[in-house]
Design goal:
By secondary structure, this protein is α+β, with helices and mostly antiparallel strands. It is 21% helix and 27% strand. It is elongated, with a radius of gyration of 20 Å. This is RRM domain-containing protein.
Length: 206
């Protein structure tokens, strides 16, 4: 267990004013609600917010806790976090001076920076030539979106998704996000035209 070998843990002077705790060794399936339960079980004070860390819209096994004040950053809190488990794993807790990032257009960053709150959906498997307007017209009719805001974002190509295009869609509510996933996930795009060539997948971003 991580805390068992860190009984003499000390916080570096360069991190003593930090208001973030980075958790690693987190299951990629963990949600912010899971992280909040972990915080509750560890009984550490001063946590104001939690966020999942994403790389290209995929959880990367890390999460961040935001503290109300640097005074809450004490070794016993880090140890307490490492004593509990989440999905059978003991997290590793470290102070962090991470700077805020503009996560939207790359899809890499904290769920709070992506402004998700369970309302964003990533959908992929589409032909490369598909653009947001065509996706909106052909697949998103009948859904509700935030008024007066852009709500479809075509994401950059990555090596993992080099053979298809991906989009992030921002819905008006959490139920709408889950409804979109149910409607699109594991369906084929335009089977009347493409047959079974393009299998669509969809997932809520937490």
């Amino acid at each position: 267990m991580a805390s068992a070998i860190r009984r003499a843990r000390r916080i570096s002077p360069s991190l003593q004013n930090a208001t973030l705790i980075k958790l690693t060794n987190i299951s990629p399936t963990a949600t912010p609600a899971d992280i909040r339960r972990l915080v509750l079980r560890s009984q550490i004070p001063g946590v104001e917010d939690v966020a999942i860390d994403n790389t290209f819209l995929e959880p990367n096994g890390s999460a961040f806790l935001t503290l109300a004040h640097p005074d809450y950053l004490v070794p016993r809190s880090l140890d307490a976090l490492e004593m509990v488990t989440i999905s059978g794993l003991h997290p590793i807790a470290e102070p962090s001076n991470r700077k805020p990032a503009r996560a939207l257009f790359q899809g890499s960053g904290l769920s709070s920076e992506l402004k998700s709150d369970g309302k964003n959906v990533v959908v992929w498997g589409f032909p490369h030539i598909l653009d947001p307007a065509a996706l909106d017209q052909q697949a998103l009719g009948g859904f509700s979106f935030p008024p007066g805001e852009d709500y479809i974002f075509k994401m950059p190509t990555t090596p993992k998704y080099s053979s298809c295009s991906r989009f992030m869609v921002r819905l008006a509510s959490v139920p709408e996000a889950h409804r979109l996933v149910r409607q699109l996930h594991m369906t084929h795009w335009r089977p009347d035209y493409h047959g079974n060539k393009y299998l669509i997948r969809a997932r809520v971003i937490y």
